[in-house]
Specification:
By secondary structure, the chain is α/β, with parallel strands linked by helices. It contains ten helices and 14 strands. Helix 8 crosses helix 10. It binds nicotinamide-adenine-dinucleotide (NAD).
Amino acid sequence: MNQYKKALVTGGAGFIGSHLAKKLLAQGMQVTVLDDLSMGKEENIPDGAVFIRGDIRFEDDMMRALDGVDIVFHEAARVSIRSSLKEFYDDADTNFMGTLNLLKCCADSGIKKIVFASSMAVYADSRTPDPIAENYTPEPIAPYGIAKLAAEKYCLQLAQQAGIDCIVLRYFNTYGKGQTFTPYVGVITIFIRKLLQNEQPMIYGDGEQKRDFVHVDDIVSANVLAMQSSVSHGIYNVGTSKATSVNEIADILCKKINPDIKPYHVEQHSGELRYSIAGIDHISNELGYKPSFEIIERIDEVIDYYRD
Ligand SMILES: NC(=O)c1ccc[n+]([C@@H]2O[C@H](COP(=O)([O-])OP(=O)(O)OC[C@H]3O[C@@H](n4cnc5c(N)ncnc54)[C@H](O)[C@@H]3O)[C@@H](O)[C@H]2O)c1
């Protein structure tokens, strides 16, 4: 049962936020989107949502966006582990200070619940491709993960202090239609775009690094479950528990798009995890989450999307 009427989706012009906003509207909720369009696009915002172009770091923008809202889905962020190594100040300014501004504003706004989009980047690198649970070592290897980890701790503590429920969702590698394109985020999107331009996909290192690729619809369903749940505070991984190597992804996509093209390898860069696979027992048991999609079932729709 959903007790909430009006949601704020920060970053709702971006990839995950726009899919989520659409789902909430379809469930009959009112939705406000706050986005500065630094990466997101206005055309991503679903019809029916109220759009406020503004910055999560600015109190005036945030207070305007929170008007009448009872639940916040905080998706807005600078989303690049790799860029955060050089641009650590800007990364922390948005991902950490922007989240603190949200918390400060929420405390006076009658908000009942915050669902915070965190990341698998909060974990230490794993030595094996076995799924890791939420109590796995929180020792991020890049500034992006450090800011997300600090932000989730502030969310949980300050929300509790203000009598607000708070659920932290640690998304693993999310893919799907409409992923925001940058050269650094979303290996599936990057490879598809390269192959459609008849260019070789570039793989860092030996390509045997393994990821948990989760469809954006599953991420959205985890958010909806977090909203509906009576759990007041918690941290949950959102993934599939399945490990797929970057080589396997390249192989699948080359075969599907252009079998004459082969990927090439360049030197491994710092800040990249070797293995990052979600243990999902906690979210399955407590929120009733179950990933619905195998990557092979949903990859064609992403290829078709970029072909169009
Ligand atoms: N995509 C993934 O694989 C993945 C994995 C783990 C966690 N996440 C998290 O999920 C969330 C959504 O990611 P996404 O893939 O949709 O990224 P995205 O870049 O598509 O969306 C982020 C949105 O935030 C907006 N934004 C950035 N800075 C802002 C600011 N200062 N004020 C207002 N808006 C701002 C951007 O314009 C963009 O529309 C992020 O918090 C990200 O860290 C994503």
